[in-house]
């Protein structure tokens, strides 16, 4: 069922998500094989008690309830859903991966409050974007990506993958087109949007940079290459970063 899941979801899940799900699936399969002392365990033979014991083992390893529910169980539930869709598990039968409720809505609310990001203060932004620091940027992306992030609110991974053609003029207004065309990818379809280019970016020369970039290819930052998940930028946002990780 694990290979079948990977095949079915290859074009439906982000590459990184599919990779992570595969790791959770393999971990679960290995745990089951150790528990039952045999290989190739039919998915319909897995019980709710098996799932409960798996959860207990994860907790004993120090893995948090939120991670277990939102990562491990979400991935494993995908296997059972596919098994039900393909007739391996009878339609209407409750999936053994669901309903364990180890991380409630109240827990989620508390976690959101505890782990929410604090906005930068004005003084912090001034230190981050001080001209002397930005002037040390060794590549255009090291200068422009922090600036684009500040003035668009976009994800750096979205901005780093832009094509030159994504810098467009609509009714006299310059804008960035954030889309998933070609080799680009987005977290969700809702992320497709147009972002007006802030006047400060234009004053800093972003349109001049776009014209210069045309000599080097079709990408806005042609020297950035995607990682194994297709992301053009996954490292920390730092003007001195030598290359995306």
TrEMBL record:
It comes from the Bacteria. The keyword Ribosomal protein does not apply. Keywords: DNA integration, DNA recombination, DNA-binding. One of its GO terms (biological process) is DNA recombination. One of its GO terms (molecular function) is DNA binding. Residues 1-84 form the Core-binding (CB) domain. Belongs to the 'phage' integrase family. This is Core-binding (CB) domain-containing protein. It comes from blood disease bacterium A2-HR MARDI.
